[in-house]
Amino acid sequence: MEFSEVVRRRRMVRAYAADPVDPAIVDKAIRNAVRAPSAGFSQGWAFLVLDTPADVARFWRAAAEDVNSPDRWLAGMMSAPVVIIPCSSKAAYLDRYAEPDKGWTDRDEARWPKPFWDLDTAMASLLILLTAVDEGLGACFIGVPPAREAAVHAEFAIPADWDPVGVITLGHPAAGGAQGSPARRPRRPLEDVLHRSSW
Questions:
Q1: Fewer Cβ atoms within 10 A, N terminus or C terminus of the chain?
Q2: What are the pLDDT digits (tens) for 52-104?
Q3: Domain region containing 117
Q4: Who's near 86: CB < 8 A, 6+ residues apart?
Q5: CA distance 116 to 176
Q6: Measuring CA to CA, how many Å separate 13 from each of 57, 155, 172, 182?
């Protein structure tokens, strides 16, 4: 598929068929993810792949409250056969930029204009979403509710210095999922978002 077509077709999928996902596609998605930009080539990202029914169920029990009586949105999301949790490590970036070629030996987080550990991992996540489209699959990027982060950390033994930046559900798209905001809101026209020379 042409890259522009992959981008055009990318959308958040909120319901999945029961068909399994080829593990080779999941591996390809992660291989593509680690090609994302990374400040100082810090590569402070890691990806927890949950691809068995038992592990996916464990995730939803840790991350959601109403798994026994889910609404339409949650029921659709829970139907995904694969869940990927992209995690970022601030420590990896602070350590990298304390090395001699960077020289920020004080490891002061205030030097960073934005949390690049999260930004880089988010860009890696987008490459997973695009790989899904290219492989004929669907995917959705959602967040872990703040009140449930500790439970997700504990359930999967995620180290304390690694933080989920979100969650990617992955599978074969199915009808019947909850409609997302694009069904109710138009895409902003290019002339509203593109500025040249000045705002």
A1: C
A2: 999 999 999 999 999 999 999 999 999 999 999 999 999 999 999 999 999 89
A3: 3-193
A4: 33, 45, 46, 47, 121, 122, 124, 125, 128, 164, 165, 166, 168
A5: 36
A6: 19, 25, 9, 12
